[in-house]
Write a structure and sequence with these properties.
InterPro entries: Metallo-B-lactamas, Pdiesterase2, RibonucZ/Hydroxyglut_hydro. The strands form two sheets. Strands 6-5-4-3-2-1-14 form a seven-stranded mixed sheet. It is built from eight helices and 14 strands. It is an alpha/beta fold. A hairpin with a 3-residue loop joins strand 2 and strand 3. The protein is globular.
């Protein structure tokens, strides 16, 4: 199993792209602007999308993906997410006002898009790669994702702040090899992080204190222009951990 980072920034500008992770060549985790780095043939190869939540920086590429290659597909693109997330997409995105409802194009019997709810406690397996929602604590319904195959697994936090349930879930994965977790703001902006339910360096360090396993830790969702400051504060706050910034174009193999 191979995970390619298409986008991992908390914003755009100067080549930055928002969250999109490609598993092998046919599955997306979130669909932010990062998917615009794929060529046309790569877009055609995507059959499944797993979403952590419905904020625009994680879903805005989805309607354009369908608009670009929907007519070339032999089967619907399947979007997997919490039921509450799919409801937001139905009400506010694929609603014929902001964007056409591709669940009914070209017909309800043969659509380009299909929603499949994936709730907590459930696992979806696609050709030997399994996806399991984990608890998260964000301002909208959200989850992290445990992505695993026979050789081990990766956890992606999605957008979250402190969550004892998330830490407990991590500690229950003894073969976890990589943890991709967000830290969006510097310590000086902790008040903004708190109200928007994101991590800042001191809050993530406190979270890591409760983690009893030892995966590689990769930081995502860094706000543009503040990346170096956030990473420096993280390394000072959590010196026992080897922490690196996730990079666009990076490949993680399991």
């Amino acid at each position: 199993m191979k995970l390619t980072v298409l986008g991992c920034s908390g914003g755009i500008g100067s080549g930055r792209h928002t969250t999109g992770l490609l598993v092998d060549d046919d599955i997306l985790i979130d669909a932010g602007t990062g998917i615009t780095t794929l060529d046309f043939e790569q877009l055609q190869a995507i059959d499944h999308v797993f979403l952590t939540h419905a904020h625009l920086d994680h879903v805005l590429g989805l309607p354009l993906l369908l608009d670009s290659v929907g007519d070339l597909r032999e089967a619907p693109l399947i979007v997997h997410a919490l039921p509450e997330v799919l409801q937001v997409l139905s009400d506010h995105l694929f609603n014929w006002q902001l964007w056409p409802d591709f669940r009914k194009i070209p017909s309800e019997d043969a659509p380009w898009l299909r929603f499949e709810p994936l709730g907590f406690g459930e696992v979806c397996t696609v050709d030997g790669r399994s996806f399991r929602p984990l608890p998260a604590n964000h301002v909208v319904p959200a989850c992290g994702l445990h992505v695993f195959a026979e050789a081990g697994g990766i956890v992606f936090s999605g957008d979250t702040t402190h969550s004892e349930a998330f830490v407990a879930a991590l500690n229950a994965i003894p073969d976890l090899r990589h943890l991709i977790i967000e830290t969006s703001f510097e310590n000086a902006l902790a008040a903004i992080a708190e109200v928007s339910k994101h991590h800042w360096p001191d809050s993530l360090a406190a979270e890591l204190n409760g983690v009893k396993i030892a995966p590689a830790v990769w930081i995502t969702h860094l706000k543009p222009g503040n990346e170096s400051a956030i990473m420096n504060e993280l390394r000072e706050a959590a010196p026992a951990w080897r922490i690196e910034a996730l990079m666009q174009g990076q490949v993680i193999e399991i």
